[in-house]
Amino acid sequence: MKQSLFEQRHAENWQRFSTRLETLEGSRRKSGSGAGFSREYRQICQHLALAIDRGYASHLVEQLQQLAMRGHQQLYRHRSQFTAQLLSFVLADFPRLVRAEWRWVALAGLLFFGSLTLMALLVYGYPDLVYSVVSPADVAEMHAMYEPAARRIGQTAERASSTDWLMFGYYVMHNVGIAFQTFASGLLFGVGSLFFLFFNGLMIGAGAGHLTDAGMGATFWPFVVGHSAFELTGIMLAGAAGLKLGWALVAPGRLRRGEALRRAAQISVRLIGGVMMFLLIAAFIEAYWSSMSWPAATAKYLVGASLWLLVGAYLTLAGRTPHAPD
Amino acid sequence: MSLSHAEPGFAAPLALLDTRVRMETPEGIDLILRPAGLLSRSIAFGIDLMIRGVLLGALFFVLGTLGDFGTGLFMLALFLGTWGYMVLFEVLHQGRTPGKQIMGLRVIHDDGTPIGWSASVLRNLLRFVDMLPFGYCVGAFTCLQHPLFKRLGDLAAGTLVIYRDLPPQRPALAEVTAINPPLPLLLAEQRAVQAFAERHATLSPARAQELAAIVTQPLQLSTSPDPHYPVQQLNGIARSLAGSS
């Protein structure tokens, strides 16, 4: 068949397919333009193959190629059943994933909580050590934040709810930033994640040890015990995801480095999804619960302990038996 | 699906000499992708940065009037702008942020399918490393090293930034009488003659004559003292190949 006859015969179909593609590209909303799409797409593919095989002119081939390409983009469109996926991720997939990657989680936890505890004990024992990691200006700022006198002011006038909003925004910005850094720098052969885990552990440990030593433990511990369950766990998991990424580059096994990285990244990014969830919860608790000064310290400790238990139980137990939404 | 550099396959139309890649799909056809290079991507990023800057700046002044509550909202907006802007646009707007839209780019998966949430989140989170140590040095370096111009984030997420194709212009064939080819043409020869006829309007007459003179002998075309005669003959063959219209 000559090219012009071929064109004459099918030009109308191509035009129709092109119009339909425009509607599909324009909006994500449901429309009637999906009906019979795959049949028309297959036809375009066949026409393209014919055009190439019969040696038709390149402008025709190119036109069909573009139609096929655009059709391909629409046919393989990303399908999102967002709510169902989110639900199954929160209820089962995320804790399962954390358990499956327990090696990296354990390593990250050891680094982070190990350095934190060690530094806290060291600073508590040798108070001057705090200045080796935290600058004097920052130490002064910490003092201002957890001054027992501030508690008395806090008791008479509750912090306005607008300030809670301010702090919520700040915590989201700051903490999620730290977690993302810890994760992303894992791409540098894992060194970045190692560094940030260790460094953040040292800083937090030094702060905790110093404040306890300076007699501000009574304001500090009730404040942090609640949200730290989610916040510290979140940073640890972000580090674990980063370490996994880095290890894929260091020891790719039987795969090429690029391929190993891609596979590790697919798993890590899901961990990061869970980390974001944790950090949002942490920011919420930190802004609205931890900052409240009227609950007695005992109440705060109790709530804190139950939150820690909750996080632990969630990560170890959730999703062990399959449920309907999975 | 496989990504290959112009593998000579069965009835492969043309070996690709430039940076285009041919990708085979399950439908048994080849898609031709044109990866975008460093410059257009940087400009697209610059445009996106400016848009975000202007929006957040405006938001800062508006929300600033609301006191602490407004500042908190602004921080949330800043968070969303820093980490969410690229992801939301890429996933919900066919792989195009406004900057990419202006520069005619789009992001897709390695296998040619539209980008999804996890790949987009990954490539944009890992931006942090590409920015190291300053001004996207790592990203620019890997981008220039890679045959498909990928930065580290693209490597890990398995994504590719390509040019969107412009609709092809229909070239006008010369108005000459159709001539049947004197001998059966191979597919590649047929394509070459057609390509010549399509492009001949953009060639200078001297160059067109020079090119046409090369094939006079092998195609056993009749000769004539007129130097433009071979050009006309090639156009005629192309017209006959296309069929009368």
Automatic annotation (TrEMBL), chain A:
The keyword Membrane applies. It comes from the Bacteria. Keywords: Membrane, Transmembrane, Transmembrane helix. The chain crosses the membrane at residues 104-126, 178-199, 211-229, 235-255, 267-289, 301-319. InterPro entries: SpoIIM-like (IPR002798). This is Uncharacterized membrane protein SpoIIM, required for sporulation.
From TrEMBL, chain B:
It is found in: Membrane. The keyword Transmembrane helix applies. InterPro entries: RDD. Its main location: membrane. Coiled coil: none annotated. Residues 36-157 form the RDD domain. Keywords: Membrane, Transmembrane, Transmembrane helix. It is a multi-pass membrane protein. The keyword Transmembrane helix applies. It holds the Pfam family RDD. GO terms for cellular component: membrane. The chain crosses the membrane at residues 43-63, 69-92. This is Uncharacterized membrane protein YckC, RDD family. It comes from Pseudomonas graminis.
